[in-house]
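Key idea: predict the complex, not the pieces.
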Amino acid sequence: MINIVLFGPPGAGKGTQSDKIIEKFNLTHVSTGDLFRKHLSEGTPLGLIAKKYMDEGNLVPDDVVIKMVELIIEACIDCPGVIFDGFPRTVNQAIALDVMLHNYGKKISGMILLEVDEIELKKRIMLRGKTSGRTDDQDLDKINNLIQVYNAETYPVANYYKSQSKLNIVNGVGSIDKIFDDICTIIDHLSD
Ligand code: AMP
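Result:
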């Protein structure tokens, strides 16, 4: 079983690359952002809790996110592998994920960090907001907040995996196919 954390700031291309990775490596995609958007569109209590955080570009509280992921892991523990996209986003979430996987005798194989500079990120998020209707993507203050939250609360997660010698960095600027090739090289190596 290969379990990957696909990591990077908002707008780094995690969703685009996840689609290609799951197709090639037959992994289950766990995107907490997608799960929250699904709850939101179905009007579930969890969706209502998440909405006020998402609308401001803030993180949904750890206990809410962790409970949601626990249920998903339980359901797909026999899959060939999982790609975590947008999770973990805090060191507490990363620790909780290690504990959850450990309880099933599993672990994270590696983290892949897509590196993209801030100017490029802002351009991409604005563009995404125009086409996707994602409410957190349409206003400059919120975009700045998304990036600030990433730097303050989420980036430390990379150091958490670095301390476990699991951090792999990929340049996230360039053609989608070239970035995908670089990611595949890392995944091939992880599954050795
Ligand atoms: P994403 O699609 O991954 O950019 O997520 C959209 C929004 O969902 C984020 O801005 C957060 O408000 C919320 N969210 C998604 N994943 C998490 C997470 N792991 N921890 C906290 N909030 C999250």
